Amino acid sequence: MRSRVVRSLLKNRIAMGGGAIVICYVMLAIIGPYIVPYDPLQQNYSELLVAPSRAHWMGTDTYGRDVLSRVVYGTRYALLVGVAAVTIQTLVGVTLGLIAGYCGGIVDTIIMRFTDMMLAIPTLVLALVIAGLLGAGLRNVIIAIGMVGWREYTRLIRGEVLSLKQESYIEAARAIGVPGVRIVLHHILPNVISTLAVYVTLCIPSAIIWAAALSYLGLGAQPPTPEWGAMLADGRQILRQAWWVGTFPGLGIMLMVLGFNFFGDGLTYALNPKLTDSGL
After folding, report:
1. Does residue 45 fall inside a structural domain?
2. Would 208 be classed as within a structural domain?
3. How far apart are CA 101 and CA 165, in angstroms?
């Protein structure tokens, strides 16, 4: 199984390209702060809005701060928000999905009706409400995004559990008196890991975009934190005068999202032999 998945990924050039982009971003987040040419918070009023040059490869912003250094530092915040928010989504959504799918009955009805009610609220509106109630800040953005994305996880995992419950080995385990918790943790959960892995990979870029959007609206990371969404907001008003201030953070977001999406799509095909065999 593992060797087949690895071979399928290696044959998929788009997936490998996406994986390479993700790895580059991870390495940049780790070593970037040690190799940037300037302090991302250091203001230099003698070099305001300097165009890209040898001294400043991506120019400077309205406070004379080096855009390259700020974009590199922003990689850490983007990955932190993406991974942390998706971790919250996964823990909440998977737990509720497992309980609803396995218990069924009134428990399933209550959980799924609540999930449907939450799904009726647009994602951005719900995120704005939660972030507004918690207050501005990177930690609150992570919580807000985490408490929005669990809804889709719950529906996905519940569907997988309902399908697995019909398998003969699950029925046999229940017949011999294996506790429900043990069945869920040792027989059902391992069989949904592949589906979950693909979905997590595709949800991380969504979390990064939502975090940038909230920061763009002033509810995320606060100045002078070098966060990409906040940098986009700074560059919006001076786009014609200094295009580089907002363009490079935007390219950073775009490439990271593309990398995760390409790798996630490749992982979907690799873990689903039917898609691979059909040539889709």
Report:
1. no
2. yes
3. 8
| Max CA separation in the chain (angstroms) | 78
Enumerate residues 6+ apart whose C-beta is below 8 A from 251: none
Kindly report the pTM of this predicted structure. 0.88
Mean pLDDT by 10 residues, the chain (280 residues): 74 91 95 90 93 94 94 94 94 94 92 93 89 90 92 93 88 86 89 88 92 90 90 90 94 95 87 54
Q: 3-state class of 66 per DSSP?
A: strand
What total number of domains does the chain contain? 1
pLDDT for 5: 73
Pairwise CA distance, residues 36 & 50, whole Å: 17
CATH number of the domain that 121 lies in? 1.10.3720.10
- Residue 280: predicted pLDDT: 46
* 40 occurs within a structural domain: no
Q: What is the pLDDT of residue 273?
A: 56
Q: Judge whether 123 lies within some domain.
A: yes
Question: 267 near 197, Cβ under 8 Å?
Answer: yes
In the chain, which residue ranges form alpha helices assigned H by DSSP? 2-11, 13-35, 67-103, 105-119, 123-134, 138-164, 168-175, 180-183, 189-216, 228-236, 244-271, 273-278
pLDDT at 12: 86
Coil, helix or strand at residue 39 = coil
| CA–CA gap between residue 252 and residue 76 (Å, rounded) | 12
Q: What's the rounded Cα separation, in Å, for the pair 116 and 152?
A: 10
